[in-house]
Amino acid sequence: MHRRIRSSAVVVALTAVATLLAACGPSAEQEGQAESITFWTPQSTPERVAAQEAVAERFTEETGIAVDVVPLAAADQDQALVTGAASGEVPDVVLAGASQITSWQSQGLLDTDVVQEAMDTLDPATFNENALSAVTVQEDGAETIAAVPSDGWVHLIAYRTDLLEEAGAEVPTTVAELAEAATTVKDELGITGIALGTQSGTASGTEGIESIFQSAGCELVTSGEVTIDSPECTEAAGFFKELRDSSVAGDYDVESARAAYMAGDAAMLLFSTHILDELANLDEAVPPSCKECADDPAFLAESSGFITVLEPPAGSAQEPAQFGATLAYAVPARADTDEARQYIEFVMGEGYADTLAVATEGRLPLRTGTPASPTEYLDAWGGLGFGPKVESSVGEVYGDDLVTAMGEGMAAVSRWGQGTPDATLAGLVATQGTLAQQLDPLYRGSDPAEVTQQMAADVTALQQDL
Fold first, then answer.
1. The whole model's pTM is what?
2. How many degrees, rounded to 5, is the angle at CA 280 between CA 190 and CA 164?
3. How far apart are CA 276 and CA 71, in angstroms?
4. Neighbouring C-beta atoms of residue 276, cutoff 10 Å
5. CA 312 → CA 164, 175, 232, 317, 318, distances in Å?
6. What is the Cα–Cα distance from 136 to 57, expressed in whole angstroms?
């Protein structure tokens, strides 16, 4: 269980971290405006770092405040921030995942007052509500926004319009219809109905379960009560097996699922928004390989439709929930708060489009616009070059309707437990692959109710150890 860091905490000697901390900005206790601030980012490939540095240079030109952009993976951020809090040397702004941020807040590592100031300027009403919920924590009976949501990605379903039509399958709108369509394709065409992560006991299986179960109206835990054995979850388990059984090539991980669709061996694919540039032949590392693609490299992009939101079951009171991930800007305690606030307001305003362009297909806006222009940033995202080649925009390749649909998908982005006290348990279930351990019995024919009951027992055991 996370506990608040105290000033007497023991400092762990970490040589690698010390080098990073040396680059951190001066304490907020110093008088006057800081000449520079330090920004930690998980976007760490050379081209993405360069793009973020270009945005930072624009900020410096306007404010005179230099920005040291430090690429740092999520696990390294966690370790370095705890160490820095103990020593008094912290970065000024950190771009991090929602689960990291709520964990840091529970340890007393963040300054939420400056975040609230930035949100007041930017207007919370212009942000994705689910993303705000993911970084909102309960403190003394009140809600506190711990970070400013920036961007993220979401699962979508790509489908071959020609193959669904040939099989006589309707474009699905729910998980039940998805399972039916996948089975129909396999029966009628003899190819895989849908490719998705289904390998038992693996990270890909864990991701596939949460994605499908959530969209089917299943909750892992509600107000501290484990509910993975609910009727909704049991039904979801049955659908998951049907989706898995639509494969003619065995179980998939994330990479092999993508390869099956790219080769034309699967009629549908559950994948993140990162698939968009690859289908359009804009990533030389992952070219389309279907037989039609040899003569027409744009064939898959032209022959694919996309489902960005699966609706919950009929009669369900649950809002649509799409598996995805979000990033937000946090300000550590003892950072240069005024300068940090200025930087956040810049990258979420004037510099926002360029910030999203760092990796367009994986950085969809969580602030869709301004009060005066509610879709300004979503529209700007649709016009950005995407993929390594950045030669074309999402709007140019797929049309403006998909840009709008992507906004709807991001509005539904969700993870089990996010923004609630159950987030820690949900995180452990995901990282330990607890649910995916029960996929083999499901595949061998165990009753879905028995499978979800065992899942519930395993989750409860984890909960008792917290």
1. 0.90
2. 30
3. 25
4. 26
5. 22, 8, 10, 8, 7
6. 31
Mean pLDDT across the chain, nearest whole number? 91
- Residue tagged 């926002």 (tokens): 352
Q: Can you give the three-state secondary structure of the chain, one letter per residue?
A: CCCCCCCCCCCCCCHHHHHHHCCCCCCCCCCCCCCEEEEEECCCCHHHHHHHHHHHHHHHHHHCCEEEEEECCHHHHHHHHHHHHHHCCCCCEEEEEHHHHHHHHHCCCECHHHHHHHHHHHCHHHECHHHHHHCEEEECCEEEECCEEEEEEEEEEEEEHHHHHHHCCCCCCCHHHHHHHHHHHHHHHCCEEEECECCCCCHHHHHHHHHHHHHCCCCCEECCEECCCCHHHHHHHHHHHHHHHCCCCCCECHHHHHHHHHCCCEEEEEEECCHHHHHCCCCCCCCCCCHHHHCCCCHHHHHEEEECCCCCCCCCCCCCCEEEEEEEEECECCCCHHHHHHHHHHHCCCCHHHHHHHHHHHCEECECCCCCCCCHHHHHHHCCECCCCCCCEHHHHHCHHHHHHHHHHHHCEECCCCCCCCHHHHHHHHHCCCHHHHHHHHHCCCCHHHHHHHHHHHHHHHHHCC
Q: Are 459 and 451 in contact (CB under 8 A)?
A: no
Spatial separation of the C-alpha atoms in residues 6 and 109, rounded to whole Å: 10
Judge residue 453's burial from the number of C-beta atoms within 10 Å of its C-beta, 0-12 exposed, 13-18 middle, 19 or more buried: middle
pLDDT digits (tens, 9 = 90+) for 63-104: 999 999 999 999 999 999 999 999 989 999 999 999 899 989
Q: Exposed e or buried b for every residue in 58-81, given b needs 16+ CB within 10 A? A: ebeeeeebbbbbbbbeeebbbbbb
Q: What is the arithmetic mean of pLDDT over 51-63?
A: 97
Phi and psi dihedrals of 418, rounded to 5? -60, 135
**pLDDT digits 0-9 by tens, 219-269:** 999 999 999 999 999 999 999 999 999 999 999 999 999 999 999 999 999
Q: How far is Cα 21 from Cα 18, in angstroms, rounded to an integer? A: 5
Residue 395, both tokens: 């709007």
Collect all residues with Cβ–Cβ distance below 8 Å to 294 and sequence separation of at least 6: none
- Cα(450)–Cα(442) distance, integer angstroms: 9
